[in-house]
Design a protein that fits this description.
It is a single chain. The protein is mostly helical and about 190 residues long. Helices cover about 70% and strands about 0% of the residues. It is built from 9 helices and no strands. The radius of gyration is 20 Å and the shape is elongated.
């Protein structure tokens, strides 16, 4: 029986040796970071949970091919990014369910306003949120994922490229294009201050 203090390589050796429960240590240790990146890419809690589950399932199935000289956290993170990209590209094919999800009032997040904020400030906050959402939707899946990994997860171009399966220079270009598009789409916000 392994404890949470067991390092990743020891847990992997135990799983490969037949102790399936040792994989639970890896799941507990890495679930939060996988959920965070999955949520930022899919922007849907339920989809992010599905992505985490699928990433760990794929990881378990491919564990024999894992090279122990690598970092398990990085390896499973890359799998999660690919699963998230699969999830959002699969969602594109079924726009009818997406429209239903977007218009479902129970799916909307509740935001608590600052008590000191007046109606004008609340209206402006709503406009800003809508513009930000539209700006992110204007990005391609690769651009959005590259942007999220760079500016929200603080990944390097090499890490982004590895996660997306593209060369580091292409990852850098995807981040650049995303930033340029977002700046252009969000330019009206500068005038409202």
């Amino acid at each position: 029986m392994f404890r949470m203090g067991t390092n990743d390589h020891e847990a992997i050796r135990a799983v490969l040796g037949g102790d399936r429960e040792a994989y639970g240590i890896l799941v507990k240790r890495h679930s939060q970071s996988l959920f965070r990146v999955a949520f930022r890419i899919t922007r849907n809690e339920s989809d992010a949970e599905d992505v985490v589950q699928e990433a760990f399932l794929r990881g378990y199935r491919k564990l024999e091919g894992f090279e122990s000289r690598s970092n398990f956290g990085t390896w499973i993170y890359r799998i999660a990014v690919r699963c998230a990209l699969d999830k959002i590209s699969g969602r594109r094919w079924d726009d009818s369910s997406r429209v239903a999800e977007e218009n479902d009032p129970e799916q909307e997040q509740v935001q608590v306003a600052d008590e000191a904020a007046g109606p004008d400030r609340l209206l402006l906050s709503g406009e800003i949120g809508a513009l930000q959402e539209a700006a992110l939707h204007s990005l391609t899946d690769t651009e959005r994922t590259a942007f999220v990994l760079r500016h929200m997860e603080d990944c390097t171009s090499e890490e982004i490229g590895a996660a997306l399966g593209i060369p580091p220079n292409a990852a850098k270009q995807a981040v650049f294009r995303a930033v340029r598009k977002l700046r252009s789409r969000l330019a009206p916000l500068r005038m409202k201050r």
